[in-house]
Amino acid sequence: MARIVQKYGGTSVGEVDRIKRVANRVKACYDAGNQVVVVVSARSGVTNELIARAKAINPQPVEREMDMLLSVGEQETIALTAMALHTLGIPAVSRTGAQARNLPDPAHTRARIVDISGGDIDEQLEGGSVVIVAGFQGMNQNGHITTLGRGGSDLSAIAIAEAIKADLCQIYTDVDGIYTADPRVVPIASKINEIAYEELLEMASSGTKVMQSRAVEFAQKYKVPFEVRSSFNNNPGTLVKEEVASMEDVLVSGVSVDKNQSKITVTNLPDRPGTAATLFQAIAADGVIVDMIVQNIGRGGKANMTFTVPRDDVYRAEKAVKDAFSSTDEIEFIASDIAKISVVGIGMKSHSGVAARFFDALATSGISIHLFRTSEIKFCVGIDLVKAEDAVRAAHDAFELGS
Amino acid sequence: MARIVQKYGGTSVGEVDRIKRVANRVKACYDAGNQVVVVVSARSGVTNELIARAKAINPQPVEREMDMLLSVGEQETIALTAMALHTLGIPAVSRTGAQARNLPDPAHTRARIVDISGGDIDEQLEGGSVVIVAGFQGMNQNGHITTLGRGGSDLSAIAIAEAIKADLCQIYTDVDGIYTADPRVVPIASKINEIAYEELLEMASSGTKVMQSRAVEFAQKYKVPFEVRSSFNNNPGTLVKEEVASMEDVLVSGVSVDKNQSKITVTNLPDRPGTAATLFQAIAADGVIVDMIVQNIGRGGKANMTFTVPRDDVYRAEKAVKDAFSSTDEIEFIASDIAKISVVGIGMKSHSGVAARFFDALATSGISIHLFRTSEIKFCVGIDLVKAEDAVRAAHDAFELGS
Q1: Which ipTM was obtained for this model?
Q2: Which pLDDT belongs to residue B337?
Q3: Between residues B373 and B244, which one has the greater pLDDT?
Q4: Reported pTM
Q5: Which pairs count as long-range contacts for A218-223, CB under 8 Å and 24+ apart, including other chains?
């Protein structure tokens, strides 16, 4: 007998028939002798409907009332899911975020979990009930309903798994697990059986959006193993857990792509100490995150700086840069769209040669590298946006990730 | 400056535009210098939608989960109403039933309010905010969400008015107030300006369904005055309050009709002591409420008993009666549809002649009376169902209730 938390997202509970299917899946787990906690999101579409109604009344609703409004979505799902289990003869009770004692900080619409006890979940499980918990929501210490932001149900599930000392947390989604690359780009991409938290975090920050990073970070911090798997079939998914020695045998676990990056080149910068600091402090002060950086000394005592930012932040970055230097500097600001291709793997910690193999693969495919960055377990390059998919395929082949 | 509770039902908040209209009405009250608490129901239609979804999953959902499900209706409305007030520049905060410390008993789907403090409503009002409270729902001492049954939002409004010592509670609905008779039957029926709790309760039990009796009983118990008025115009409504001397000047306040009654005659009953007790104990044991009763001695030492019950209970009553007597008694059970016409008025306490005038009016209209019953402030008769509207008009004329 194990204690298992299962989380189902909005598409998995989007309609009455899907809720019934979730109930059947929960029943199978329960009938196998397990204690089961189910964390559910709002039915897909409900959140958007509620937002539309709110915007029709007030284009800029205050966040506290948005939380009050949006939290009804999961409350509906938990009740319906409990009813579906009752139809199958399974004892089940629903719990709102507040009732599960999910205690976030006071921030609205993007609260962080401060503490979570699970309320009476333990008692209910011991009494033989399945417990259905509303994801995404909690109640802060002032008694206000708050929500945890996008992906908040994943975070709820992992936090509850930690609170009740679950043996496993299963994140049900509409994909079979985490892949070595996006299967739409690389048809032979294969599902990864096991991956370390750190690798998944690096892949997420490189464009692989299976789960939001906050949930993975929480799991990493509290060492909560979880499995990402599909609610539409019975295939085993990807187990995400602490790094184990055998993971180092795999040089690269996956290839990610982020097509929403821009490369910015600032030319004519005065070549004197402090220029780089002025530049990047100005950008950071505006909340723009700079990723890859390369510096060149230009002619006539001038320097050029090239770096990447998320595409949506280009204009803010431009304004920050222009405000930071006097007009007499005559600096130039040139932006262009790029893609960031990342190879990620725990194995890089102990193996050399990743960069060489990666560069060689791109060169063989005729892809130029504008800039790159390494971290302990990740190697990223910035390339022309139009070459993004070719680059993913080339890297995937080079590291022999195909199934 | 007064402290006012305004309650808006489902039709008043049924659409985005109506919520905006409610907000404008609240603003007018707030701008006039009042402290305002708004109690709202779920948008009309939402409750039925939720019930349909539940039934599609489980034809007999458990009540606890129905409460969990249905309580999302008002939670949506309070958030949207708060947003609509913000659009108008009015500070407003929403509160669920639980947050307003509406503490019902443990019964689900029909809980009674045990205690209500209002939570921080007082503090919010003193701070200049309008407070929007979810009607119909509360949280019991075990931490479960419960709902108060049909008409529960009226009860919430009156209970909150009592808790925060409001000067007035306004129940906004889709009619202008309480009328001397149903205006669809009696076109010259007039709106009653003031009525005693007791009169309204008697009218409600006689078929005038403006508010559920539980809310009126609560108001009577705690002496909370309230006004029933329309949310679609600015006409003054009907003030419901404790009996005052001047009310006795009016002999009859209104005429009600209940078309859902059946007359039952049981014949061949043994004419011996205890027969009536056996009969009515059997019916009462099945939860059927008997209203008017008349007994006749028949021939050959047999008695007949005629009484009325709600039409839906006829079959239960029949079964109870047949089970209570042995088959050798050969009793007969005959049921027919009737209407109950009631005249209600505090004035009856101190004036005589009501029965005579009522009987005369019906006789003049050619309406036979099958049976009747009197109480301190009400006189009811049972007549043929098809004559119901004629009887209402005749009584309305006889007591000069027209405007």
Answers
A1: 0.83
A2: 95
A3: B373
A4: 0.84
A5: A218/A113, A218/A155, A218/A158, A218/A159, A218/A162, A219/A158, A219/A169, A222/A158, A222/A162
- Helices (H), ranges, A58-120: 63-70, 72-87
Which candidate, A10, A75, A102, A39, places its Cα nearest to that of B79?
A75
**How many Cα neighbours within 13 Å face the side chain of A376?**
7
| Residues of chain A above pLDDT 70, percent | 100
Q: Is B369 on the interface with A (CB under 8 A)?
A: no
Instruction: Count the residues in chain B.
Output: 403
Model confidence pLDDT, tens digit, residues B272-305: 888 889 999 999 998 899 999 988 876 777 888 9
CA distance B59 to B348: 49
**Which helix (H) or strand (E) is B344 found in, with range?**
strand B332-344
d(CA B118, CA B113): 12
Q: Give the Cα separation of A42 and A40 in Å (integer).
A: 7
In terms of residues, how long is chain A? 403
For helices A152-163 and A213-222, the axis angle rounded to 10 degrees is 10
Q: Which of A267, A335, A334 is nearest to A304 (CA)?
A: A267
- Residue A62's pLDDT band (cuts 50, 70, 90): very high
Q: Are A231 and A276 in contact, with CB atoms under 8 Å apart?
A: no
Mapped onto helix, strand or coil, the DSSP state of residue B382 is strand
Q: Do A83 and B76 touch (CB under 8 A)?
A: no
Interface test with B, best of A64, A76, A124 (most B CBs within 10 A): A76
Q: Domains for chain A: give ranges and CATH numbers.
A: 3-174 (3.40.1160.10), 255-398 (3.30.2130.10)
Residue B320: in which H helix or E strand, if any?
A: helix B314-324
* Chain A hits for B119, Cβ within 8 Å: 143
Does the distance separating the beta carbons of A57 and B80 come in below 8 Å? yes
**Tens of pLDDT, residues B24-49:** 999 999 999 999 999 999 999 999 99
* A234 φ/ψ angles, rounded to the nearest 5 degrees: -110, 15
Q: Are strands A130-134 and A92-95 parallel, antiparallel or unpaired?
A: parallel
Contact B68 A143 (CB under 8 A): no
Q: Rounded CA gap, A256 and A379, in Å?
A: 10
